[in-house]
């Protein structure tokens, strides 16, 4: 069964492929902005933090590999957990009931 929804290569994009050393024939643009970024140190990718505290994913190809689509999707409940914690923290800081 074909799973065309799980792979998209935007070869006309002026940044394609946006990571040096990436295989342009196997570069998935579906997660152009990585949903795992929000997981910080727990994203599972090859990242580093810059001196200014910004997460640098320049060397990470994890979400761009065709075979990792299901692995990225499987982490959505982790992302939802982060969002729920942030919302709870915001309610606490604003004095709302959790």
Task: Describe the fold and architecture.
By secondary structure, the protein is mainly α. 26% of the residues lie in helices and 4% in strands. Strands 1-2 form a two-stranded antiparallel ribbon. 8% of the residues are buried.
Residue-averaged pLDDT, rounded?
Answer: 91
| Distinct helical segment count | 2
Bin the strand percentage. Answer: under 5%
What low-confidence regions span 5 or more consecutive residues with pLDDT below 50?
none
Which radius of gyration do the C-alpha atoms yield? 16 Å
Taking the alpha carbons of the first and last residues, their distance comes to 45 Å
Element order: H for helix, E for strand: EEHH
Main β sheet profile: 2 strands, antiparallel
Percent of residues in helical segments? Answer: 25-40%
Strand order of the largest sheet: 1-2
What class, by secondary structure content? mainly alpha
User: How many runs of DSSP E, i.e. beta strands?
Assistant: 2
Give the overall shape: globular
Label this structure with key terms.
single chain; 98 residues; mainly alpha
Task: Please sum up the structure shown.
It is globular and about 50 Å long. 8% of the residues are buried.
Element layout with pairings:
Blueprint: E1 48-49, E2 55-56, H1 69-74, H2 76-94
Antiparallel strand pairs: 1-2
């Amino acid at each position: 069964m074909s799973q065309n929804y799980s792979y998209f290569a935007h070869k006309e994009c002026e940044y394609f492929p946006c990571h040096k050393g990436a295989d342009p024939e196997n570069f998935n643009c579906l997660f152009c902005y990585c949903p795992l970024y929000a997981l910080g140190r727990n994203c599972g990718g090859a990242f580093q933090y810059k001196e200014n505290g910004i997460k640098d994913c320049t060397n990470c190809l994890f979400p761009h590999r065709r075979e990792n689509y299901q692995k990225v999707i499987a982490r959505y409940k982790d992302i939802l957990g982060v969002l729920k914690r942030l919302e709870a923290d915001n309610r606490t800081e604003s004095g709302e009931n959790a």
